[in-house]
Amino acid sequence: MITLWDLARHEKLNEHVASTVFIYLMVAFCLFATWANPNNSTAYLNWALYILFIPLIDDNIVAPEFLVRALGIVAFWFYTNTVRASMFYVSLVAVLLILGLMFKFHKQIHSHLLLNIELTAWIGVAFWITQTQLTLTASLMGTVMFVLMNWFTSLYWSSERLANLERNRLEQQVNSDTLTKAGSFFAFKSDSASALATAQRNNSPLTLVMFDIDHFKNVNDTYGHAAGNAVLIGVTELVQNMVDTRLYRTGGEEFNLFFETPKAQILPLMQRLHRQVKNADFVYEGQHISVTLSMGITVLNKGDLSFEDVYERADANLYLSKRSGRDCITVDGQQLALA
């Protein structure tokens, strides 16, 4: 049976192969252009050199792909140089060393502008000093042109990288609660919708746990909002260390968890979690603070049309826990016995 993972891996392999073949075709065209129009051979050779080397510092290149392209560079070196010249072997050793550095540090080179420029300068020098048929001025211009071409590419990559970093930062802000680092309400809505779709498609279980910190307003009023924030952070860390799924802060002191697991397997864990929070001692500036949790738990039913149906049932169960005096767990209308 072919899985989606197999298809994705096969598609990725095809992309790597197609990219390498395209690079070789472009280099072949540049070499043909050098033969057909020798007056512009410097430009064509620079393009071939650029096409061969620059993709090697791409973040997504894999080892076999790098090796195949490196062999192409060595072949290009032999083709475009006088093999019997002593300078050729000096340049060949230099390019092999450069290839080794690129293989080991290509991600650092990709993200470091100055290092990128320095490396390409050495590539240009290593290649153009072997072109003995050219004048010193032509070789120097070839080297400078190659460095400038790569400099432009590096500047573009740097600006793209900065844009990606900013985009990731904004996504992090949207998807994470600033105070507790738990998932945000926005992330909860998005992730829960995906989990619901998966559960309905695969006919698999989905359990939702909603809980509040009891009398949290009293914590703020008695100890101060900074202490209340410390409690929120402490509860988040305690809960997150006990579960293997993401915790979401969906309100002031309201949190949610969902598990792609049957309810029967989740209830013992929630009993332990409830007990751990109750027994925890949260300390802020010498003040010892204890809190309890009220929980509401439900599961996905066949008649549920959206995650809102599940969420509303969990919320109703949480309300029953509060009506029952708080510090308890309600599962689909029934109070769960606590150890």
TrEMBL record:
<keyword id="KW-1133">Transmembrane helix</keyword>
<keyword id="KW-0472">Membrane</keyword>
<dbReference type="Pfam" id="PF00990">
    <property type="entry name" value="GGDEF"/>
</dbReference>
<protein>
    <submittedName>
        <fullName>Diguanylate cyclase</fullName>
    </submittedName>
</protein>
<feature type="domain" description="GGDEF">
    <location>
        <begin position="204"/>
        <end position="334"/>
    </location>
</feature>
<feature type="transmembrane region" description="Helical">
    <location>
        <begin position="16"/>
        <end position="35"/>
    </location>
</feature>
<dbReference type="GO" id="GO:1902201">
    <property type="term" value="P:negative regulation of bacterial-type flagellum-dependent cell motility"/>
</dbReference>
<feature type="transmembrane region" description="Helical">
    <location>
        <begin position="113"/>
        <end position="130"/>
    </location>
</feature>
<dbReference type="GO" id="GO:0005886">
    <property type="term" value="C:plasma membrane"/>
</dbReference>
<keyword id="KW-0812">Transmembrane</keyword>
<dbReference type="InterPro" id="IPR050469">
    <property type="entry name" value="Diguanylate_Cyclase"/>
</dbReference>
<feature type="transmembrane region" description="Helical">
    <location>
        <begin position="86"/>
        <end position="106"/>
    </location>
</feature>
<dbReference type="GO" id="GO:0043709">
    <property type="term" value="P:cell adhesion involved in single-species biofilm formation"/>
</dbReference>
<dbReference type="InterPro" id="IPR043128">
    <property type="entry name" value="Rev_trsase/Diguanyl_cyclase"/>
</dbReference>
<dbReference type="GO" id="GO:0052621">
    <property type="term" value="F:diguanylate cyclase activity"/>
</dbReference>
<dbReference type="InterPro" id="IPR029787">
    <property type="entry name" value="Nucleotide_cyclase"/>
</dbReference>
<feature type="transmembrane region" description="Helical">
    <location>
        <begin position="136"/>
        <end position="157"/>
    </location>
</feature>
<dbReference type="InterPro" id="IPR000160">
    <property type="entry name" value="GGDEF_dom"/>
</dbReference>
